[in-house]
Amino acid sequence: PNCNIVELCNRLGVSRSFLYSLFRENTNISPQKYLMQLRMEAAKKELQNTTSNLKEIAHKVGYGDEFTFSKAFKRYSGVSPNVFRRN
């Protein structure tokens, strides 16, 4: 999950526009949304199965800081990472 679209295009040897059209045709979502879903699902596993703090989890799943990660996580799951971990 710790990857961005440019890195993904470089690894696959394709252009950004080709990657987007390929994703849209096959998944109906953008590559960015797919990567975000991967990051959030990885974060959920970390929250459930480890005692790592939010800063560690944020960095592990590709976010620069826990504040940005927490906002993205809440947008994705409807609850904050701390609430998710408690439940």
TrEMBL record:
Ranges for domain HTH araC/xylS-type: 1-87
Sorted UniProt keywords: DNA-binding, Transcription, Transcription regulation
Coiled-coil parts of chain: none
SMART domains linked to this entry: HTH_ARAC
Presence of the UniProt keyword Ribosomal protein in the record: no
Matches recorded under InterPro entries: AraC_XylS_family_regulators, Homeodomain-like_sf, HTH_AraC, HTH_AraC-typ_CS, Tscrpt_reg_AraC-type_HTH
One Gene Ontology molecular-function label: sequence-specific DNA binding
Protein name: XylS/AraC-type transcription factor
Organism: Lactobacillus helveticus
